[in-house]
């Protein structure tokens, strides 16, 4: 169960089983999340919580968790529903619903922008950054981090003078309160990370979920009658079409791991997507079964880096699905051309999904 495959071309290891993916993600003592030894100022994301090991990680996580609480997220539910309804209303005039562009993509961007406290007139700017951060142009990616750094620096300054009821203020207050807190750049890195980590992943979750339901008309009918199946549908989509397919780690020091001789600095790729289809853990893994219980998928990771936004992502997906089932009698695509997958090995998602 602990098999790791070595690839001499890239001098890296890959693991696919549920057991080994879970163990490696959780084992920060042997597998580091810090990909760069000294993250540069140009890339605040590289210095962010996602890419730090303890003790720095623990310090950041406890500060950030104070701002990003269950209470803050739960309070967003009615507002998320309104945003989803508005997006669906806007699309209604077109005669078809393009699930990705009309709903799944704008929803998480608007939600996180509102949570952070970004004024609505800056929404377009924000959406542009969010797209460029996951795009393929590295120069633009770096430039974008610089623009966002400048932008958030000003927003933080404003809140120092006049605190507001938003996440930027909460992050600033909890993270920069004393000498043991975070630097301004670290808080900015956190704000940027929330965009990078949360937007495309949630978009892909929502779109994949509708794709799975479109091919199960009977299940969709059941869901319309029984909304209690919605949370299980979200969980099963996370397992079946894990939005994050692969997570990376770096071997900290030469060691023997399960009979494999791993060397310091080598990359280890954990295939989260494959782990969700491991038949030793999931009975009949090729079946999309919304009643699967328990459903111990690893879509949000495992251990100290477990996704900070899991609760928000689940909430957005549930609200999006309930808005759809309340409006659409049956899901039917406008054509039968094959769906196109996003061009990424790291992520799973579809480019478009057009419904009648
Ligand atoms: C971490 C997946 C949505 C913020 C992670 C990790 C995974 C993940 C696998 C662990 C990375 C690792 O172990 O190295 C997802 C998926 C999402 C999603 C599949 C949507 C379906 C969100 C949202 C936010 C968010 C909406 C915030 C608004 C974060 C942050 C971390 C993280 C800050 C780093 C936590 C840490 O290092 O302690 N996510 N995520 N994610 N996620 Fe998410």
Automatic annotation (TrEMBL):
Pfam families on file: p450
Keyword tags: Heme, Iron, Metal-binding, Monooxygenase, Oxidoreductase
InterPro entries according to UniProt: Cyt_P450, Cyt_P450_B, Cyt_P450_CS, Cyt_P450_sf
GO MF annotation list: heme binding; iron ion binding; monooxygenase activity; oxidoreductase activity, acting on paired donors, with incorporation or reduction of molecular oxygen
Entry superkingdom: Bacteria
UniProt cross-references to Gene3D superfamilies, sorted A to Z: Cytochrome P450
Family: Belongs to the cytochrome P450 family.
Identification of the protein by name: Cytochrome P450
């Amino acid at each position: 169960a602990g098999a790791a495959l070595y690839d001499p071309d890239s001098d890296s290891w890959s693991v696919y089983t549920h057991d080994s993916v879970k163990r490696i993600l959780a084992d920060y003592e042997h597998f580091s999340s810090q990909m760069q030894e000294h993250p540069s100022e140009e890339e605040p994301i590289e210095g962010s919580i996602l890419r730090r090991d303890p003790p720095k990680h623990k310090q950041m996580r406890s500060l950030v968790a104070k701002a990003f609480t269950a209470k803050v997220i739960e309070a967003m539910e009615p507002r998320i529903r309104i945003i989803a309804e508005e997006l669906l209303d806007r699309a209604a005039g077109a005669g078809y619903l393009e699930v990705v562009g009309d709903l799944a993509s704008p929803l998480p961007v608007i939600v996180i922008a509102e949570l952070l406290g970004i004024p609505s007139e800056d929404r377009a700017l924000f959406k542009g950054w969010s797209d460029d951060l996951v795009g393929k142009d590295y120069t633009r990616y770096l430039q974008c981090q610089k623009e966002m750094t400048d932008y958030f620096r000003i927003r933080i300054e404003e809140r120092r003078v006049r605190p507001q009821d938003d996440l930027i203020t909460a992050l600033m207050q909890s993270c920069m309160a004393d000498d043991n807190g975070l630097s301004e750049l670290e808080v900015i890195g956190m704000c940027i990370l929330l965009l990078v980590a949360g937007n495309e992943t949630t978009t892909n979750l929502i779109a994949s979920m509708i794709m799975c339901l479109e091919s199960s008309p009977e299940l969709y009918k059941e869901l319309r009658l029984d909304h209690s199946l919605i949370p299980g549908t979200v969980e099963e989509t996370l397992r079946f079409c894990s939005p994050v397919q692969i997570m990376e780690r770096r071997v900290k020091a030469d060691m023997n791991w399960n009979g494999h001789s791993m060397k310091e600095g080598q990359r280890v790729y954990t295939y989260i997507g494959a782990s969700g289809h491991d038949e030793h853990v999931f009975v009949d893994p090729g079946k999309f079964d919304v009643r699967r219980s328990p459903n111990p998928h690893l879509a949000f990771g495992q251990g100290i880096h477990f996704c900070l936004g899991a609760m928000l992502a689940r909430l957005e997906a549930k609200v999006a699905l309930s808005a759809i089932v309340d409006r659409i009698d049956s899901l039917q695509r406008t054509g039968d051309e094959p769906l196109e997958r996003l061009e990424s090995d790291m992520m799973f998602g579809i480019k478009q999904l057009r419904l009648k």
